[in-house]
Amino acid sequence: MYDVIILGAGASGLFLSDFLKNQKILIIEHNSSIGEKIKVSGGGKCNITNKDVSYKNYYPESEFVRNTLVKCSNKDLLKWIKQKGLKVYELKPGQYFFNSSKEILNVLKPNCKIIYNCEVLDVNEGFEVITSKGIFKAKNVVVALGGKSFKKLGASEKGYEIAKKFGHKISPIKPALVGFTIQPKESWFKRLSGISVMADVYVKNKKFSQNILFSHKGITGPAILNASLYWDKGKIKIDFLRGKKVKDHLKNKHKQIISQLPFPKNFTKEFLKSVGIEDKKVMFLKNQEWDRLKLLENYEFAPAGTFGFERAEVTKGGVVTDEISENMESKIVKGLYFVGEVLDVTGELGGYNFQWAFSSSYSAFLGLSL
């Protein structure tokens, strides 16, 4: 009989096992090693947290998230990193990375029993955990199985299935932090594959001022990945000129359009082609052509869909937090805990999801220590 069985050796499960020093713990992991998703995150450098963390960086915004982050903040995570003898670097403005993801994995190696290549088949009442390698019993079970994204790393819907079995509601799961596929009208995006530009992207009441990247499948890049977290259907707006006006750039009437717009030449060529304008001297532009050029200030398009779970960095949706206590314990079944991505809490790009893994696991630790 174990005090705690942790299902999953991703970020949430590893953080929790590090906090739980004086209990008999078992970790069950379906991969052959710990932290498979950590290894590839942030280009192999692991974007661990952000300089500015607020509940407003998470979908959906809630007091549940706000209270969890207050209890265990980004400052607490940075302090933990320092105590472990690790260093982080601000490789992008406000975003903290390691030199290599291996650094954090080295300090998160569990000091408890862990069974690898082990599939969780079921969890029965009384916390009898049935697996492909036997049956194990515990006083408490923590579901840290993550979401559905990154299937090649072993992601599954098992965490949601366990939650449902014990009576929990699951909000619809969707790919998030993922690129968009496009309608035929935006086929010019595909001809720009590999080109990136800075832009302001608007979705609902959110604005993201970051790079967008065109691809053979559609459109991606940091601003688009963040927009995908808040998009369900309908249009997204892109301001390619980031608050400026077309006329601010096309000041010289004797020069060609392409030579004056602040974009890679191929981008401007394809945009002009898409709106039916030939490259010409500004003095020859007609009024209706000026109107079409103004689309650069307010380009609206409706994505056809997303690149899907295979390309998504995280899963949006999950175990509804109204049924979870402030210590991540089920309000329905005492001793059952949920941490990390399996919950209906999803952070923006920039270290927010690792922060959530840390903060939610610390809250669970407090509950398990009572």
In words, what does this structure look like?
The radius of gyration is 24 Å and the shape is elongated. It has eleven helices and 21 strands. Strand 5 (89-92) and strand 6 (95-97) form a beta hairpin. It has 370 residues and is of the alpha+beta class. 45% of the residues are buried.
Gyration radius (Cα, Å) is 24 Å
What proportion of the residues is helical, as a percent range?
Answer: 25-40%
Count of the separate structural domains: 2
| CATH homologous superfamily classification of the largest domain | FAD/NAD(P)-binding domain
What's the rounded overall pLDDT mean?
Answer: 96
Can you tell me the CATH architecture of the largest domain?
3-Layer(bba) Sandwich
- Give the overall shape, derived from the CA principal axes: elongated
Distance between the termini: 19 Å
The name of the CATH topology of the largest domain is: FAD/NAD(P)-binding domain
**What is the strand content?**
25-35%
The helix-and-strand class reads: alpha+beta
Tell me how many strands there are.
21
Per DSSP, the total helix count is 11
Level-1 CATH class name of the largest domain: Alpha Beta
Largest sheet: 7 strands, mixed
Poorly predicted runs are none
